[in-house]
Amino acid sequence: MYERMLNKQEVPAIEAMTTYCGENAERFSMLHEWLVSAFHTEWKVVFPYGNQYGWIHYRVICQKHYEDIKKLLEMKCS
Question: How many domains does the chain fold into?
């Protein structure tokens, strides 16, 4: 999957990205659904990534991390 994300000719499917998350696939989907409902985000992978997006890199591997990232994003996006 990582290599596929670097291939600008092939946009990864949502299902492939979810599968890549393994045991955290449910949290990945929950986070996506929360972002759509809270901030009206659009699910879209675009190239190039560039410097215009303000990345937050946070590994969500348990419910506590999920709640933490929601708080961080609420503060960052408000």
Answer: 1
